[in-house]
Amino acid sequence: MAEKRVGGRSHPHLTGQDRPQLLQSVAITSGTGKSHLLIGLGVAACEQGRSVRYATCAQLVNELAEAVDDRRLSRLVARYGRVELLCLDEFGYVKLDTRGSELLFQILTEREEKSAVALASNLPFSEWGQVVPDPRLVAAIVDRVTFNAHIIETGTDSYRLRTTKARARRKSA
Predict the structure, then answer these.
(1) How far apart are CA 68 and CA 74, in angstroms?
(2) In this structure, is residue 41 part of a structural domain?
(3) CATH number of the domain where residue 109 is located
(4) Three-class DSSP category at 50
(5) Is the residue at 79 inside a domain?
(6) Which residues of the chain have a pLDDT value below 70?
(7) Which pLDDT value is given to residue 9?
(8) What pLDDT does residue 119 have?
(9) E runs forming strands in 19-59
(10) What does DSSP say about strands 149-153 and 52-56: parallel, antiparallel, or unpaired?
C-alpha cells in the first residue's frame, strides 16, 4: 500500500503499517488537548479516505446496551469492527458497570490486531480499575489497548484554564 500524505507531510500513525496501531492519550487533568488530538487524528484519517467513527466511551457503551436490548448487538459489533479507525474519547470520566465494561471489551476484542483504536483517557492505566469493576477485565482491556500502542501523555496543564486566565489578565490590564 502506497503511503498517503496529509497536508504534504506523512503522518506516522496513519500511513500503511504492518499492524493497526492504537493511539492512547493519557493525561491526569481536563483541558490538556486529548480530545483535540483525537479529533485531529480522525480528521487526518478521513482526509486519507479511511473510515472513522468518533464516540465517547459512555456513548459507545449506551449504544451497545441498547443494541443488546433490541437484539442487534452482533450487527453493531460487526459494524464497529469494519471501521478503520475508532476514536474513543473520555475513558475514565464515567464509571462503567459490569455489563458496560464487557460490551466495551467486546468491541476492543473485535478490533484487536485488525483495526486501529485511538483512545483518550484522563486516568493512568493503574487507575482504570476505578472505571471498570472487574480486575481481570481491567487487565485484559489494558493489555489490548497497549499492545503495539503509541502512548502520548499530553501533560497536566489545562489549555482552557490557561486561556481563561490570559484573557482575564488582558481585560484587567
Answers:
(1) 9
(2) yes
(3) 3.40.50.300
(4) coil
(5) yes
(6) 1-32, 155-162
(7) 42
(8) 92
(9) 22-26, 52-56
(10) unpaired
The average confidence (pLDDT) of the chain is 82
pLDDT of residue 62: 97
Domain of residue 155: give its range. Answer: 22-172
Question: Buried b / exposed e across 26-56, counting CB within 10 Å, b at 16+?
Answer: bbeeebbbbbebbbebbebbeebebebebbb
Domain count, the chain: 1
- Rounded to whole angstroms, the Cα distance separating 80 from 16 reads 20
- Res 78: pLDDT: 94
Angle in degrees, 0-180, between the axes of helices 98-111 and 135-146, rounded to the nearest 10: 30
CB contact at 8 A, 16 and 58: no
158: its cell numbers:
489545562
Closest CA to 118 of 159, 90, 155: 90
Angle of CA points 120, 137, 129, to nearest 5°: 60
